[in-house]
Design brief:
This protein is an alpha/beta fold. The protein contains 19 helices and 12 strands. Strand 9, helix 17 and strand 10 form a beta-alpha-beta unit. The relative contact order is 0.09.
């Protein structure tokens, strides 16, 4: 937190300094504008070359101040975002709130672990990790949390995240640029649709025509200045009108491009700045350099092409500027040439835009995980193996604060399933979520809440909670049966890490007991690894029949001074203490 406080103070000082410059330039610009009007008026009244010269100099100075003003304004916006970014991190680390988007739009009740492990929504893993500001960045982070990487990909991500975690100022600068974009799904989709729309370029004849007519217009004016013969003015005016007729034939096409690209120009410009920040940064890890290399197309940097596209959009939009558009098009067919250049650009580069934006998304995703690593420097990057061994030392839930977090050692071997018992509130469900969340984080290359870990990354499949589907006329029980069927189908094709919490709740005790035992036998026959939590002590006796595949572990409770206490420490064997009767008696229920 100290670093965030330091950066916040630094950026606040920078913002105040820029604010002074901004106000000073604003005042100078106003004075220059007033002076310019005065000199222009004097030069018009007197035809004095001094006032004419001063008017020209005043105009040049005004334009220069305008440019400086724009640059300072942009820097102010960046500093303002950087102040907010560090302030949000301080709020987050003080446990005063989670001021980040929660990804509720990605909630999928049918996913094999995301809903059960609280991956999306309020106080979710996504919300705690999320430091993305573009739509594609948010989407990429959500996708990464739902996809197990191969060992090579995990190692590549680990190296990238380790490197980015140290680049705090660069990460925050990239984040600030992304926040300025004010991107959303609609804008992203509109841009992608624009790139994918089929576009017909001008014919060869038309390409020649749009150069010949403006040249003839210019050539027809020259003789007039030499001879002062009005005939040449008529000829020039004729070519001027022909140019405008040519413009009218393409006006519908120009407007179509403007409508399809509405609001895209500003976003494209910001995308270009994000890409440029990636291009000029030096990286050491292989993955980051590979991503950076993809921004180099035919020895031309993507940022330059994005800037060119933004410039073309701006130029095309000026067709709406009445008199100026008439003069420039009548003389040079300015907007026809702009459209032609845009169509050629689109033909050459439009297929690359989605890939370039994907790289922005990938960096935002990696930056989010790097920020998570930076905020939790005691977390470790696990070693990887391919022997189906999973070992954690001091494993805890990464979203529980350090002061409240209880950690445990746990290990699994091939075809090793733990039957976990314990009374209500003893920590069984939290422990299952702890296993699941850390296995997922390990499987995407992120650090995990453990002091030491050696794992074989596996697909995680969970059955902890089900949602009744009234629309599908499903009961809780039938929804759970369908989930268990999906788990079995998944295990038929590959070894998975399975987490089950008190399955078959919606049936009677004998049926539930028999069903649970038979289900355990089925999944261990398919080499499942993982944990099943249960209150049924009879289920624990199954370990006698499969001593090499099933292990009993438990969370115990203690009654001390008429209080029920939990230490949340994992122990060997089967839970012996019962808390329900004690609590009911203490509260006068029985």
């Amino acid at each position: 937190m100290i670093e965030y406080l330091k950066l916040k103070k630094q950026y606040l000082n920078d913002f105040n300094r820029l604010n002074k410059s901004y106000n000073l330039i604003s005042a100078l610009r106003l004075i220059t504008a007033i002076t310019l009007v005065f000199f222009a008026y004097k030069s018009f009244k007197t035809d004095d070359y001094l006032f004419i010269s001063l008017s020209i100099l005043g105009f040049i100075l005004f334009i220069a101040l305008l440019k400086i003003h724009e640059k300072i304004s942009f820097k102010r916006r960046i500093k303002k975002q950087l102040i907010a970014i560090n302030n949000n991190e301080i709020i987050y680390l003080k446990n005063e709130g989670i001021p980040f988007e929660n990804g509720s739009e990605y909630i999928d009740f049918k996913h094999l672990y995301a809903y059960d492990l609280d991956f999306f929504g309020e106080n979710s893993l996504f919300q705690n990790l999320n430091r993305t500001a573009t739509y594609i960045g948010s989407k990429r982070l959500s996708e990464r949390l739902l996809t197990l990487l191969k060992n090579q990909g995990i190692k590549a991500n680990q190296q990238a995240i380790k490197e980015l975690s140290k680049k705090i100022e660069w990460r925050q600068y990239l984040y600030s640029l992304a926040k300025i974009v004010k991107d959303n799904r609609e804008n992203y989709q509109k841009l992608i649709e624009w790139t994918e729309a089929k576009q017909v370029t001008f014919t060869k004849f038309f390409n020649v025509l749009i150069y010949i007519i403006p040249i003839l217009f210019c050539l027809s004016i020259i003789p007039y200045f030499i001879t002062n013969y009005l005939f040449f003015i008529y000829i020039s005016f004729t070519f001027f009108l022909i140019n405008l007729v040519v413009l009218v034939t393409q006006l519908k096409r120009i407007k179509k491009e403007l409508i399809e690209s509405d609001n895209i120009n500003a976003i494209i410009k910001q995308y270009g700045l994000i890409i440029e920040a990636i291009e000029i940064e030096n990286f050491k890890s292989e993955k980051l350099n590979q991503l950076k290399e993809k921004l180099n197309h035919k020895s031309c940097l993507a940022s330059k092409q994005i800037k060119k596209l933004s410039s073309l959009f701006s130029s095309l939009q000026s067709v709406q500027n009445g008199i100026g558009a008439i003069l420039f098009n009548g003389a040079f067919l300015y907007h026809i040439h702009t459209l032609n250049t845009l169509l050629k650009w689109k033909k050459e580069y439009s297929t690359h835009i989605k890939g370039w934006l994907d790289i922005i998304g990938e960096f935002e995703m990696l930056n989010s995980l790097a920020n998570f690593s930076y905020n939790n420097r005691a977390f470790v990057f696990p070693n990887l193996n391919e022997n189906y061994n999973i070992e954690f030392e001091e494993l805890g839930h990464p979203l529980i604060t350090k002061e409240k977090r209880i950690c445990n050692d746990i290990q699994f071997k091939k075809s090793n399933l733990i039957i976990l018992t314990g009374s209500n509130m003893s920590g069984k469900s939290t422990f299952l979520r702890t296993l699941g969340v850390n296995m997922i984080l390990a499987g995407i290359g992120a650090p995990i809440c453990s002091t030491k870990a050696n794992i074989h990354p596996l697909n995680v499949i969970v059955s902890m909670r089900q949602v009744d589907s009234l629309n599908d006329s499903e009961s809780y029980f039938f929804a759970e049966v369908k989930r268990l069927k999906r788990i079995i189908d998944k295990l038929k094709s590959k070894t998975c890490f399975v987490l089950l919490d008190e399955i078959l709740k919606g049936t009677n005790s004998d049926d539930k007991q028999n069903g649970t035992i038979e289900f355990i036998k089925n999944i261990i026959s398919k080499n499942a690894i993982g944990t099943i939590a249960t209150h049924d002590l009879e289920v624990c006796k199954t370990t006698n029949d499969y001593p090499e595949k099933l292990i009993n572990k438990c969370f115990e409770s203690k009654i001390i001074n008429n209080d029920l206490l939990f230490d949340y420490k994992l122990k060997e064997g089967i839970c012996k203490n019962k808390s329900a009767t004690f609590l009911m008696k203490k509260n006068g229920i029985i």
